[in-house]
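Q: Hi! New to this. If I give you a protein sequence and the SMILES for adenosine-5'-triphosphate, can you show me the bound structure?
A: Yes, paste them in.
Q: Okay, here:
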Amino acid sequence: MISIEGLRKQFITNKSTIHAVDDLSLTIKEGEIFGVIGYSGAGKSTFVRLLNRLEEPSGGRIVIDQQEITSLNTKQLRLARQEIGMIFQHFNLLWSRTVRDNITFPLEIAGVPKNERDERVTELIRLVGLTGRETAYPSQLSGGQKQRVGIARALANNPKVLLCDEATSALDPETTNSILDLLVDINEKLGLTIILITHEMHVIRKICNQVAVMENGKIVEQGDVLDIFLRPQQQVTRKFVEQVMGTEDENESIDQLVQSYDQGKIVRLHFIGETTNQALISHLAKKYEVDINILQGKITQTQRGAYGTIFVQMIGEKTELDESVRFVTDDTSVEVEVIRDVN
Ligand SMILES: Nc1ncnc2c1ncn2[C@@H]1O[C@H](COP(=O)(O)OP(=O)(O)OP(=O)(O)O)[C@@H](O)[C@H]1O
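A: Thanks. Here is the predicted structure of the protein with adenosine-5'-triphosphate bound:
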């Protein structure tokens, strides 16, 4: 759906030249929710604004749905932008217009006849869950509701791609989750390709299939979200994974655990993405004569299933313990490491 080659953007100030986006190449598949994460100043906003040429590239090529965006003239670009919706951190709504009129606005510009517009707006209001709020003004809406208007407005002309520029950064955690759920819902219902930039790894974890990590205008690491959680290569990526998983030193040391629990086996279970393993603990306790004591750990959910590590103490007869470890090793995708084996 989207192909980007050697994309560059320089800002020349009187003191220096800033390479905000520096030779960036990327391919994004149709229907994907693609996350771009980076710290402030990494170049994320500039990158996303280059995609619909809100910023003019200094070099490189952008192709969206077989159309070369970088070679369009002003009139062609205006039409092409109807295929690329965008939502913003601060919503960018028209304060003098109601919910309904904000959503109607892009349809007016596109020259859609009034009766068609009305029908489409009603449909969009329903899609984003704002039925009943049609006549409210932005000042009367909560942050989450404002972003829902932003989303409806961005979808008005049936775009193929939705760009999200820190769309949940101004929202509280609960509202963030409801907006992220809405984005997933829209992605599934409409098959829309979504590019989302953020500085929050939990946003990536919750809804993205693929992620690219940006630093100094470049993509330093990229891949399937679960793989990035499992094997972050770059220091900056490890820091982002720690936002969700915590750091190693936040956890009690393994030595301490082993000393405190002097019976049975101490086992580390590493969940790497299977959704079917969520009942693993109760399954083990039913299938074998073992007691399982959860000691420490953290599991989080990605779009591809559970990821994380827990430490457990398993108590029982040696044969039962060995059998249960064998079961997890051979019959599930959970990785097992026996840390201490008293039996
Ligand atoms: N119009 C501009 N003129 C000069 N420099 C700019 C301009 N826009 C962005 N920059 C610079 O380009 C770099 C990348 O900025 P950008 O806003 O894309 O980063 P970001 O990752 O989105 O960070 P943030 O989340 O803080 O916006 C920064 O050094 C920024 O100061």
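A: The mean pLDDT is 91. Let me know if you'd like me to explain how to read the tokens.
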